[in-house]
Amino acid sequence: MGKNLYTSETKWAVVREKLEGKLTTKEIMDKYQIKNKSQVETWMRWYKKGEIYRFDQPIGKQYTFGHGP
What we know:
With 69 residues, the chain is an all-alpha fold. The chain contains three helices and no strands.
């Protein structure tokens, strides 16, 4: 079982649609083929905290100094 890789464009699209409130989380997950709702919740948490630099981070990479790839 591998990890899914979502592009930063997908992450931004999900956040935008969630903020608009026109689609439910389940509908957004179906539209973008996201398997777990916690992924959407994580992206929303990053957005609300202003940690948008995380949208461009590769899987498993944590940048504490440069805040980016």
